[in-house]
Specification:
about 5% helix, about 120 residues
Amino acid sequence: MFGKGIYFADMVSKSANYCHTSQTDPVGLILLGEVALGNMFELKNASHITKLPKGKHSVKGLGKTAPDPISTASLDGADVPLGKGIPSGISNTSLMYNEYIVYDIAQVKLKYLLKLKFNYKTTLW
C-alpha cells in the first residue's frame, strides 16, 4: 500500500489479519516493537512511496478507527494501546486502521514476540 517498508499498527486487530491463521491452524505470531517514527508523512489513501518527502522520517496512514487514548498502558516506558477502537474523526480516508511505515530498519527495535492462539467459534446450524 505504501511501498516497500516495515509496517506497524496501533491496533492488534489490524496486525492479526497478517498472521494468516485458520480453524485448522489457529496459531500465529505477532512482533511488538518500538518504532522511531520521527516526523511522519500523513496520508489518507494508499500511495506507493519510493522516497519520503524531505524532512519526513516515516509514513502514517490515517485510518477511520484508532485506539481509545484512555485505554493505554505503559510497558517499559512505551505506551501500549489497549481496548476497543473508536472512530478517529478522520474524514475522507480509505483506510480502516492507522498504519505506520518506516523504510530504514535502524528505526525499529523489536521487543516482544507473541505467540497467539486465535479462537475460531464454530456455529452449529
